[in-house]
Write a structure and sequence with these properties.
alpha/beta, single chain, 16% helix, 2 helices, globular
């Protein structure tokens, strides 16, 4: 199952303090807008999203249709197909994408420990 690019999305209390901390680990801003409460940081292929006031818990994020550098891939598995496959495997969803739609969409599942896993397609 190709879920696309992977990143960790962190629910932070102080985006500036978090940005400064991760800068010491070699992460540099690659997108987002701190004034809107979100930044995307990169260190090579490693990606961390910082989100202040947008969600309660840290989560794992997958982006179908993107590679690890945030570039569109030539082919990818559409999020609706991923959701159908997971539903057939017995997965339950916290949020679902409209399977009759097309284009961008997302769904969310929880792992056995309650950690959110977001699958977020942007195209």
């Amino acid at each position: 199952m190709d879920l696309g690019a992977f990143s960790v999305s962190l629910a932070v209390k102080d985006i500036a303090a978090s940005e400064a901390f991760y800068a010491k680990l070699g992460f540099q801003p690659a997108g987002g807008d701190a004034s809107q409460g979100w930044l995307i940081l990169r260190n090579g292929p490693r990606v961390i999203g910082l989100f202040q006031g947008m969600f309660e818990r840290n989560m794992l994020t997958f982006n179908p249709g993107w590679d690890q550098q945030g570039r569109e891939t030539d082919s990818f598995t559409d999020i609706r197909e991923l959701q159908r496959s997971l539903r057939e495997a017995g997965m339950t969803f916290e949020a679902e994408v409209d399977e009759d739609g097309s284009g961008p969409g997302h769904f969310m599942v929880l792992d056995p420990d309650g950690n959110p896993v977001l699958v977020d397609q942007h195209r």
